[in-house]
Amino acid sequence: MSPSFIETLSSRMPRLRHAVAAFAAVLVAATMPAAAQDAMDGESGPAYAMASELAAESLLLDATFANGRLVAVGEYGHVVYSDDRGVTWTQAASVPTQATLTGVTFVDAKLGFAVGHDATIIRTRDGGENWDLVYHDPESEMAFMAVYFENEERGFALGAFAFMVETQDGGEPGTWEERSLSDGLLDDYHLNKLFADKDGDLYIAAEFGIVYHSNDKGRTFASIQTQYEGSFWGGFGMSDGSVMVFGMRGNAFRSWDKGQNWTKVDTGTDKSIAGGVQLGGGKIILVGLQGYVGYSDDNGKSFVEVTRADRLGYAAVADGPEGQIVVFGEPGAKLMPDDPEKAREAVGARITAVSEGGS
What we know:
5-stranded antiparallel beta sheet, 40% strand
């Protein structure tokens, strides 16, 4: 298997060896902290995430909006939320796991799901303040990396070695059933990120340059081999209907035709890219290893790289308060300007403008 985002991070950052395999399960059993491995005791029930004033300053791996609330998840079962777009954070009051959480989604302002190590799925019905454990299979030594819900009833979670479970009953315990991506599709690649395009088609960024596409809300997926042979760690849909995927060594590709053809994007970096978003105003932001933050004001034709002075790894990015973005990664949630010149002055180590190219 090719390296996952957190495997690569952990090789460069010793502290992350205890949170390895956020996007893959290869090293789960060998390196996960004892507290996370022991997240469920058959007699005493689940071990709950411990309250910590530093929860928003520890490793966070994914974030999403629940209407106006920004919710982020990470190591040791940490769930934090912000009602001011990342200026201040509150830790969830009750989270019944200490496993590393890797993905989060919300159906509406109240109903949400998060997934992670030890094949863990948790659910909230109050906007992220309190959570229930609805699926847990530590003996499988699998890690979920993404979760999707079509509506309040139907959803699925997926991750390492193409492991996937689905519910038709709102995620209630006992209603999750293991399934394959599609009948006859026997791939066992790590499924690192799931996202939707403007039309609601679903895509999965996977290993070995594979992208999976579904036009039926995830009931079936088709495998697409891109011209890249490395791992894709993430992707997102854009306002013009196109999609972008990205991953190791600064590689990013874009498709305007539902993934049938892909054009290489000139990201101007060889740093691996793990997260990205298109802001409301159209600006595209990418984040990744070694403090990489890439800015594009021309719909992804060119990027300006700002290397954060901390040179830490970042896995996700979201729109922040006016004039700012929120980046999520090894040091938790950090605000920085949404303009590269201002970002360089505030948190950057250097800046590099790249020539136009790619798509």
